[in-house]
Amino acid sequence: MSLCVEIQKRLGNFQLDVQFEAHQEPLALLGASGCGKSVTLRCIAGILTPDTGKIVLDGAVLYDSTAHINLPPQRRNVGYLFQQYALFPNMTVRQNIAAAVRNRGRRAAEVTEKLRRFRLEEVADRRPAQLSGGQQQRTALARILASEPGMILLDEPFSALDGYLRQQLELELQELLEPFQGTILWVSHDQGEVFRNCRRVCVISQGRSQPVQTVEDLFLRPETVAAAQLSGCGNFAMAVPQGDVVFLPAWNLTLRCAAPPPPGIDCVGIRARQLHPAVSGEVNAFPCAVVRVIQDLSCTTLLLRPLDAMAEAPLLRMELDRESGLADQRELLVSVSPEHLLLLR
Ligand SMILES: Nc1ncnc2c1ncn2[C@@H]1O[C@H](COP(=O)(O)OP(=O)(O)OP(=O)(O)O)[C@@H](O)[C@H]1O
Fold first, then answer.
1. What is the strand order of the sheet 235-238 is part of?
2. What is the pTM of this model?
3. For the chain, domain boundaries
4. d(CA 61, ligand 1 centre) in Å
5. 235-344: which CATH topology?
6. 298 within ligand 1 shell (Cβ under 6 A)
7. Kind of pairing, strands 151-155 and 78-81?
8. Coiled-coil ranges per the record (predicted)?
9. Mean pLDDT computed over 268-283
Protein backbone atom coordinates (compact mmCIF):
# COMPACT_ATOMS: atom_id res chain seq x y z
CA MET A 1 0.00 0.00 0.00
CA SER A 2 1.84 3.10 -1.15
CA LEU A 3 1.72 6.26 -3.19
CA CYS A 4 4.50 7.22 -5.62
CA VAL A 5 4.40 10.72 -7.07
CA GLU A 6 6.81 12.21 -9.59
CA ILE A 7 5.21 15.10 -11.49
CA GLN A 8 5.94 18.39 -13.20
CA LYS A 9 3.40 21.12 -13.95
CA ARG A 10 3.73 24.70 -15.17
CA LEU A 11 1.03 27.27 -14.25
CA GLY A 12 1.88 30.71 -15.62
CA ASN A 13 5.21 31.61 -14.01
CA PHE A 14 4.93 28.87 -11.42
CA GLN A 15 6.80 25.60 -12.00
CA LEU A 16 5.93 22.55 -9.87
CA ASP A 17 8.47 19.71 -9.73
CA VAL A 18 7.79 17.24 -6.93
CA GLN A 19 8.62 13.63 -6.16
CA PHE A 20 7.97 11.63 -3.03
CA GLU A 21 6.67 8.28 -1.78
CA ALA A 22 4.26 7.63 1.09
CA HIS A 23 3.57 4.23 2.64
CA GLN A 24 0.35 3.66 4.60
CA GLU A 25 1.12 6.63 6.84
CA PRO A 26 0.16 10.23 7.31
CA LEU A 27 2.86 12.04 5.29
CA ALA A 28 2.98 15.81 5.75
CA LEU A 29 3.47 18.17 2.81
CA LEU A 30 4.83 21.30 4.45
CA GLY A 31 5.64 24.58 2.77
CA ALA A 32 5.11 28.32 2.73
CA SER A 33 2.02 29.86 1.14
CA GLY A 34 2.10 29.51 -2.65
CA CYS A 35 4.82 26.82 -2.74
CA GLY A 36 2.60 24.34 -4.60
CA LYS A 37 0.98 22.14 -1.94
CA SER A 38 -2.59 22.45 -3.24
CA VAL A 39 -1.51 22.10 -6.87
CA THR A 40 0.19 18.83 -5.90
CA LEU A 41 -2.98 17.52 -4.23
CA ARG A 42 -5.14 18.59 -7.17
CA CYS A 43 -2.85 16.70 -9.56
CA ILE A 44 -3.09 13.55 -7.40
CA ALA A 45 -6.87 13.84 -7.16
CA GLY A 46 -7.12 14.27 -10.95
CA ILE A 47 -8.64 17.77 -10.86
CA LEU A 48 -5.51 19.16 -12.54
CA THR A 49 -3.42 17.30 -15.12
CA PRO A 50 0.38 17.46 -14.76
CA ASP A 51 2.47 18.22 -17.87
CA THR A 52 4.73 15.21 -17.32
CA GLY A 53 5.39 12.46 -14.77
CA LYS A 54 3.71 9.56 -13.07
CA ILE A 55 1.35 8.92 -10.11
CA VAL A 56 0.87 5.35 -8.82
CA LEU A 57 -1.43 4.42 -5.92
CA ASP A 58 -1.25 0.90 -4.47
CA GLY A 59 0.11 -0.43 -7.77
CA ALA A 60 -2.59 1.26 -9.90
CA VAL A 61 -1.34 3.87 -12.36
CA LEU A 62 -3.48 7.02 -11.93
CA TYR A 63 -1.42 9.12 -14.29
CA ASP A 64 1.48 8.41 -16.62
CA SER A 65 2.37 10.98 -19.28
CA THR A 66 4.53 8.51 -21.22
CA ALA A 67 1.85 5.79 -21.35
CA HIS A 68 -0.93 8.40 -21.88
CA ILE A 69 -2.83 7.26 -18.79
CA ASN A 70 -4.93 9.84 -16.96
CA LEU A 71 -7.75 8.38 -14.84
CA PRO A 72 -10.67 10.76 -14.14
CA PRO A 73 -11.11 11.84 -10.47
CA GLN A 74 -14.00 9.45 -9.82
CA ARG A 75 -11.89 6.42 -10.79
CA ARG A 76 -8.90 7.33 -8.62
CA ASN A 77 -10.30 6.18 -5.27
CA VAL A 78 -8.91 9.28 -3.59
CA GLY A 79 -10.77 11.16 -0.82
CA TYR A 80 -10.07 14.89 -0.81
CA LEU A 81 -10.87 17.05 2.23
CA PHE A 82 -10.84 20.57 0.81
CA GLN A 83 -9.93 23.66 2.84
CA GLN A 84 -13.58 24.77 2.83
CA TYR A 85 -14.94 21.18 2.92
CA ALA A 86 -16.89 21.48 -0.38
CA LEU A 87 -20.14 19.88 0.82
CA PHE A 88 -23.17 19.83 -1.48
CA PRO A 89 -25.01 22.95 -0.22
CA ASN A 90 -28.52 21.81 -1.17
CA MET A 91 -28.25 18.40 0.45
CA THR A 92 -28.63 17.56 4.12
CA VAL A 93 -25.81 15.98 6.13
CA ARG A 94 -27.48 12.57 5.65
CA GLN A 95 -27.75 13.07 1.87
CA ASN A 96 -24.18 14.36 1.61
CA ILE A 97 -22.91 11.16 3.22
CA ALA A 98 -25.31 8.88 1.33
CA ALA A 99 -24.15 10.31 -2.02
CA ALA A 100 -20.67 8.97 -1.35
CA VAL A 101 -21.61 5.34 -0.56
CA ARG A 102 -20.92 3.22 -3.62
CA ASN A 103 -22.68 0.02 -2.62
CA ARG A 104 -26.40 0.85 -2.92
CA GLY A 105 -27.45 -2.17 -0.88
CA ARG A 106 -25.36 -1.00 2.06
CA ARG A 107 -26.18 2.68 1.73
CA ALA A 108 -28.68 3.05 4.60
CA ALA A 109 -26.57 1.02 7.04
CA GLU A 110 -23.40 2.92 6.10
CA VAL A 111 -25.07 6.30 6.59
CA THR A 112 -26.41 5.27 10.01
CA GLU A 113 -22.99 4.04 11.06
CA LYS A 114 -21.21 7.20 9.85
CA LEU A 115 -23.75 9.54 11.49
CA ARG A 116 -23.21 7.72 14.78
CA ARG A 117 -19.43 7.48 14.60
CA PHE A 118 -19.00 11.11 13.59
CA ARG A 119 -21.58 12.34 16.16
CA LEU A 120 -23.80 13.86 13.48
CA GLU A 121 -27.12 12.21 14.34
CA GLU A 122 -28.63 15.38 15.78
CA VAL A 123 -27.81 17.47 12.72
CA ALA A 124 -28.45 14.75 10.11
CA ASP A 125 -31.30 16.66 8.47
CA ARG A 126 -29.61 20.06 8.35
CA ARG A 127 -27.93 21.62 5.34
CA PRO A 128 -24.21 22.63 5.45
CA ALA A 129 -25.00 26.33 5.96
CA GLN A 130 -26.78 25.39 9.21
CA LEU A 131 -23.71 23.64 10.68
CA SER A 132 -20.80 24.82 12.80
CA GLY A 133 -17.29 24.63 11.36
CA GLY A 134 -16.58 21.47 13.32
CA GLN A 135 -19.81 19.78 12.18
CA GLN A 136 -19.02 20.67 8.58
CA GLN A 137 -15.59 19.15 8.94
CA ARG A 138 -16.99 15.94 10.45
CA THR A 139 -19.59 15.71 7.68
CA ALA A 140 -16.93 16.15 5.01
CA LEU A 141 -14.75 13.50 6.63
CA ALA A 142 -17.69 11.11 7.08
CA ARG A 143 -18.50 11.54 3.40
CA ILE A 144 -14.92 10.83 2.40
CA LEU A 145 -14.66 7.68 4.53
CA ALA A 146 -18.06 6.49 3.26
CA SER A 147 -16.57 6.37 -0.23
CA GLU A 148 -13.91 3.88 1.01
CA PRO A 149 -10.93 5.67 -0.49
CA GLY A 150 -7.48 4.14 -0.98
CA MET A 151 -5.96 7.36 0.25
CA ILE A 152 -7.02 10.64 1.83
CA LEU A 153 -5.82 14.14 0.96
CA LEU A 154 -6.21 16.70 3.74
CA ASP A 155 -5.72 20.28 2.54
CA GLU A 156 -5.12 22.46 5.61
CA PRO A 157 -7.92 20.68 7.48
CA PHE A 158 -8.22 23.36 10.19
CA SER A 159 -7.74 26.54 8.17
CA ALA A 160 -11.45 27.39 8.35
CA LEU A 161 -11.53 27.18 12.16
CA ASP A 162 -10.32 29.28 15.06
CA GLY A 163 -8.08 28.49 18.06
CA TYR A 164 -10.07 26.45 20.59
CA LEU A 165 -12.17 24.55 18.07
CA ARG A 166 -9.04 23.88 16.10
CA GLN A 167 -7.33 22.13 19.01
CA GLN A 168 -10.40 20.02 19.74
CA LEU A 169 -10.90 19.00 16.14
CA GLU A 170 -7.28 18.10 15.67
CA LEU A 171 -7.59 15.52 18.45
CA GLU A 172 -10.88 14.35 17.01
CA LEU A 173 -9.51 14.03 13.48
CA GLN A 174 -6.62 11.90 14.77
CA GLU A 175 -9.10 9.53 16.44
CA LEU A 176 -11.44 9.36 13.46
CA LEU A 177 -8.59 8.66 11.07
CA GLU A 178 -6.91 6.07 13.28
CA PRO A 179 -8.74 3.04 11.80
CA PHE A 180 -7.92 4.20 8.25
CA GLN A 181 -5.41 1.80 6.68
CA GLY A 182 -4.34 3.77 3.60
CA THR A 183 -1.98 6.66 2.95
CA ILE A 184 -2.88 10.17 4.11
CA LEU A 185 -1.28 13.29 2.63
CA TRP A 186 -1.59 16.05 5.20
CA VAL A 187 -0.99 19.53 3.76
CA SER A 188 -0.11 22.22 6.23
CA HIS A 189 2.00 25.28 6.78
CA ASP A 190 1.75 24.84 10.56
CA GLN A 191 4.85 23.22 12.07
CA GLY A 192 3.10 22.18 15.30
CA GLU A 193 0.27 20.48 13.44
CA VAL A 194 2.76 18.50 11.36
CA PHE A 195 4.88 17.54 14.38
CA ARG A 196 1.84 16.30 16.32
CA ASN A 197 0.19 14.33 13.52
CA CYS A 198 2.84 12.95 11.16
CA ARG A 199 6.03 10.92 11.53
CA ARG A 200 7.49 11.91 8.15
CA VAL A 201 7.40 15.09 6.12
CA CYS A 202 8.15 16.29 2.60
CA VAL A 203 9.10 19.98 2.48
CA ILE A 204 8.07 21.85 -0.67
CA SER A 205 9.95 25.05 -1.36
CA GLN A 206 9.07 27.26 -4.37
CA GLY A 207 7.52 24.37 -6.28
CA ARG A 208 10.30 21.84 -5.60
CA SER A 209 10.11 18.97 -3.15
CA GLN A 210 12.96 18.11 -0.82
CA PRO A 211 13.72 14.49 0.15
CA VAL A 212 11.22 13.02 2.63
CA GLN A 213 12.58 13.09 6.19
CA THR A 214 11.39 12.37 9.72
CA VAL A 215 9.71 15.22 11.56
CA GLU A 216 12.43 14.98 14.24
CA ASP A 217 15.15 15.54 11.63
CA LEU A 218 13.30 18.50 10.13
CA PHE A 219 12.39 20.25 13.36
CA LEU A 220 15.33 19.36 15.58
CA ARG A 221 18.11 19.03 12.97
CA PRO A 222 17.13 21.07 9.87
CA GLU A 223 19.81 21.20 7.17
CA THR A 224 18.60 23.94 4.85
CA VAL A 225 17.45 27.52 5.36
CA ALA A 226 13.98 26.67 3.97
CA ALA A 227 13.63 23.75 6.41
CA ALA A 228 14.84 25.84 9.36
CA GLN A 229 12.34 28.60 8.50
CA LEU A 230 9.53 26.05 8.36
CA SER A 231 10.62 24.63 11.70
CA GLY A 232 10.09 28.07 13.27
CA CYS A 233 13.68 29.36 13.38
CA GLY A 234 13.63 33.17 13.21
CA ASN A 235 17.30 34.27 13.09
CA PHE A 236 19.55 33.72 10.08
CA ALA A 237 22.95 35.03 9.01
CA MET A 238 25.41 34.24 6.25
CA ALA A 239 28.33 32.27 7.68
CA VAL A 240 31.94 31.59 6.75
CA PRO A 241 33.18 28.32 8.35
CA GLN A 242 36.75 28.46 9.73
CA GLY A 243 37.80 25.19 11.42
CA ASP A 244 35.29 24.56 14.20
CA VAL A 245 33.99 28.13 14.31
CA VAL A 246 31.83 30.19 11.94
CA PHE A 247 32.34 33.87 11.19
CA LEU A 248 29.11 35.86 10.68
CA PRO A 249 30.03 39.07 8.79
CA ALA A 250 26.67 40.82 9.29
CA TRP A 251 26.91 40.64 13.08
CA ASN A 252 30.74 40.65 13.11
CA LEU A 253 30.64 37.60 15.37
CA THR A 254 32.66 34.42 15.55
CA LEU A 255 30.74 31.54 17.11
CA ARG A 256 31.99 28.11 18.14
CA CYS A 257 30.25 25.05 16.64
CA ALA A 258 29.77 21.68 18.36
CA ALA A 259 31.79 20.05 15.51
CA PRO A 260 33.57 21.38 12.41
CA PRO A 261 30.85 22.41 9.88
CA PRO A 262 30.50 19.97 6.97
CA PRO A 263 31.25 21.24 3.42
CA GLY A 264 28.59 23.46 1.84
CA ILE A 265 27.53 25.31 5.02
CA ASP A 266 27.03 29.01 4.26
CA CYS A 267 24.40 30.11 6.75
CA VAL A 268 23.55 29.71 10.43
CA GLY A 269 20.19 29.73 12.16
CA ILE A 270 19.58 30.58 15.81
CA ARG A 271 16.20 29.87 17.38
CA ALA A 272 14.78 32.76 19.41
CA ARG A 273 14.25 30.36 22.34
CA GLN A 274 17.85 29.17 22.25
CA LEU A 275 19.45 32.56 22.73
CA HIS A 276 19.91 33.01 26.46
CA PRO A 277 21.26 35.63 28.87
CA ALA A 278 24.97 34.87 29.39
CA VAL A 279 27.62 35.44 32.03
CA SER A 280 30.93 37.05 31.13
CA GLY A 281 33.39 34.53 29.69
CA GLU A 282 30.69 32.05 28.64
CA VAL A 283 31.28 30.35 25.27
CA ASN A 284 29.68 32.26 22.34
CA ALA A 285 28.70 35.20 24.59
CA PHE A 286 28.31 38.58 22.84
CA PRO A 287 26.90 41.95 23.93
CA CYS A 288 23.79 43.36 22.29
CA ALA A 289 21.74 46.54 22.40
CA VAL A 290 18.07 45.94 23.17
CA VAL A 291 16.28 47.68 20.29
CA ARG A 292 12.70 46.70 21.07
CA VAL A 293 10.66 44.72 23.58
CA ILE A 294 7.48 42.94 22.48
CA GLN A 295 5.21 41.66 25.23
CA ASP A 296 3.20 38.66 24.11
CA LEU A 297 0.62 36.56 25.96
CA SER A 298 3.02 33.88 27.10
CA CYS A 299 6.48 35.28 26.42
CA THR A 300 8.56 38.41 25.93
CA THR A 301 10.45 38.90 22.67
CA LEU A 302 13.53 41.12 22.62
CA LEU A 303 14.87 42.48 19.33
CA LEU A 304 18.65 42.75 19.71
CA ARG A 305 21.46 44.34 17.75
CA PRO A 306 24.89 42.82 18.41
CA LEU A 307 27.13 45.78 19.36
CA ASP A 308 29.59 45.18 16.49
CA ALA A 309 26.89 44.50 13.84
CA MET A 310 26.87 46.21 10.45
CA ALA A 311 24.27 48.97 10.16
CA GLU A 312 21.94 47.03 7.84
CA ALA A 313 22.32 43.66 9.65
CA PRO A 314 19.07 41.93 10.65
CA LEU A 315 18.07 42.18 14.31
CA LEU A 316 18.21 39.06 16.48
CA ARG A 317 15.01 37.80 18.10
CA MET A 318 15.30 36.41 21.60
CA GLU A 319 12.34 34.85 23.40
CA LEU A 320 12.11 34.87 27.19
CA ASP A 321 9.55 33.80 29.76
CA ARG A 322 7.30 36.74 30.65
CA GLU A 323 8.61 36.87 34.20
CA SER A 324 12.30 36.92 33.24
CA GLY A 325 12.69 40.52 34.48
CA LEU A 326 15.06 41.37 31.63
CA ALA A 327 12.61 43.43 29.54
CA ASP A 328 13.85 46.80 30.84
CA GLN A 329 17.57 46.29 30.09
CA ARG A 330 19.28 48.57 27.55
CA GLU A 331 22.14 46.16 26.90
CA LEU A 332 22.38 42.42 27.38
CA LEU A 333 25.13 39.81 27.16
CA VAL A 334 23.62 36.82 25.34
CA SER A 335 24.86 33.46 24.10
CA VAL A 336 23.88 30.45 22.02
CA SER A 337 25.35 27.05 22.95
CA PRO A 338 27.47 25.47 20.18
CA GLU A 339 25.07 22.50 19.96
CA HIS A 340 22.14 24.86 19.36
CA LEU A 341 23.73 26.63 16.42
CA LEU A 342 21.97 25.40 13.24
CA LEU A 343 24.48 24.94 10.41
CA LEU A 344 22.59 25.37 7.15
CA ARG A 345 22.95 25.24 3.37
N1 LIG B 1 -5.03 27.72 -12.03
C2 LIG B 1 -3.90 28.40 -11.82
N3 LIG B 1 -3.37 29.21 -12.77
C4 LIG B 1 -2.21 29.87 -12.58
N5 LIG B 1 -1.48 29.79 -11.46
C6 LIG B 1 -1.96 29.01 -10.47
C7 LIG B 1 -3.20 28.27 -10.59
N8 LIG B 1 -3.38 27.59 -9.44
C9 LIG B 1 -2.34 27.89 -8.64
N10 LIG B 1 -1.48 28.73 -9.24
C11 LIG B 1 -0.22 29.25 -8.69
O12 LIG B 1 0.57 28.15 -8.32
C13 LIG B 1 1.31 28.44 -7.13
C14 LIG B 1 1.07 27.37 -6.09
O15 LIG B 1 -0.27 27.44 -5.61
P16 LIG B 1 -0.84 26.47 -4.49
O17 LIG B 1 -2.30 26.75 -4.36
O18 LIG B 1 -0.44 25.07 -4.78
O19 LIG B 1 -0.06 26.98 -3.19
P20 LIG B 1 -0.12 26.39 -1.71
O21 LIG B 1 1.25 25.91 -1.39
O22 LIG B 1 -1.23 25.42 -1.57
O23 LIG B 1 -0.43 27.73 -0.88
P24 LIG B 1 -1.42 28.03 0.37
O25 LIG B 1 -0.70 27.49 1.57
O26 LIG B 1 -1.48 29.52 0.37
O27 LIG B 1 -2.73 27.37 0.10
C28 LIG B 1 0.88 29.84 -6.69
O29 LIG B 1 1.86 30.75 -7.13
C30 LIG B 1 -0.44 30.04 -7.41
O31 LIG B 1 -0.64 31.41 -7.67
1. 235-238, 267-270, 342-344
2. 0.83
3. 3-230, 235-344
4. 25
5. OB fold (Dihydrolipoamide Acetyltransferase, E2P) (2.40.50)
6. no
7. parallel
8. none
9. 95
